[in-house]
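Sequence in, structure out.
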Amino acid sequence: MQDLPADILFLVCEELARKRDFATLFTCAVSSKSLVKPALLWMYRVHDDCSIRNSSEVNEADFERNVAAVKRICSQWTLQWKSIIRSSLGHTRYPYCLYIRSLDLRNLAELLEDPWFRELSQSFFADDMTQFLRKPDTPMKQKIRGAKALYKKLDVPVILDLVGESITNYVSTAATQNGATVALEEISGEISGLALPRWVGRISKLKSMTLWDGAALSESVATSIGHNCPQFDDLTFYGSNPDIDQDLASFFSGLKKDSLRSFTALSANAVGPETLLSLNHHKSSLQRLKLDGLRSAAIKNLSLLQGCVGLVSLEIQDSDGSVNLEATENDIFLEVIAWLGRCEKLRELLLRNLASGPAILTQVCLRNNVRLHTLQVTNYPLLGNQDFHRALSHQTSLESLSLKADPEGALRDDIDVLIASISQLHKLRYLNLVNTSDYFHTSEILKLSSALTRLEDLSFGGYDVTDDLWRGLANLHQLRILNISAMTSFSFDGILSYISALKDSNKGLALWVMSQKAENPLSDYEQSIIKQSITETVDGKFDFTLFREADSDSESFSD
């Protein structure tokens, strides 16, 4: 039989890697000499997607029923990391660590901390791997039943540092010796401030960093990136101490001007005025900015971002929610409106727990040059925000809308204005009104469903929602997720009639009835019939929860 050309074999393995079909890639690697190199290259290039947590062989239910499968996957996961690390010592047949694009130390940390790894740890750190074994000076001990020795907790951060040092040093040295460039493009995990500038200096193709602690960032890291990593443009960190605003500012200012494309702070308590101002150093390149958990000092200085007008996606979360810019910082309030009004490329805007968010959006939504596709606003009162809700109707390009407002005290006019405005957004495919819709009836949902025929994902609350709802929802032929958190009184026949009206375009529909009135229960048999029907009709799923009020007697202290 004639062998296929090498480039065809490479493409086959690339497609298997794209599908994360690790089992087939492994089979290819051991089945043919012509396949071993492309199969191994692609298997290790996407190695960080292989772990217990996302394996297709098991799910959460399998941990009880299928222990053998879990152990097998953990063993494979362990062997894969061991082969990568040993290859950085030059002790493997193939240089696996030269194949990887992402050095995800989060994945390794997950393995080292996994309970299933305990019985594999001794073999993992055997022989030449002993140099990576570190335990705390005062190790914690856990009792293990039987005659097993006490398990000593690993010093994971130190182990990660040693592994990262070995791998980055090896790939850099190999690239220099071979006159090539390293394959690594991403690094992530708990990386120290001492190691980071050294590592990035070795990774010339570095594009993205995801750090556990933003405190690792400094001007020296920026300098190293500037000298060695011309493609770097993406930064994420999970959190940091609140006193590093100046260091963060030095990092952003130290990077090459207009080089940063995306910045995400998943806990932005360290981001202050200096950091906000320094981001203007990338005003022409910055497209995505996510700042979760900003403190009040940063909220009062949001206008310092006004140079960043190339944003495509902006997400801001106020950790305190106490600063009303319109009332107390009106100059800043007006400057923020002016800034967002100049962001003509802005397509995704998420404002969470921002007290002045609705007032800002009232003006921004009326701008003809701002055409949003995604909008999320949370933690604001439904009462008194009719102007904001009217302004929403001008954003007719919206495809995704999520409003989480407090409905307490809202009047009939507040609800009517909101319904009328959302009904003008005919391009909506995703709509989430849970909480906001607590006082909606069947009629309000019917009005929305008749106007928004492109919906694919709909979530809402309400009360006294009846079978009359189904006739309207049956017209949503693109619907894939229907999450009903309202107080409902659906009947068995009503739900079945809706399912029978579904089209092929509703394939895979997930129907969740999450708060059915206790006086309108569905028996286990009826639920099983509904599940069978939705599976047979559109290969869908059905979940049902009966609402039960808290028993006041059980919650009170007895005399």
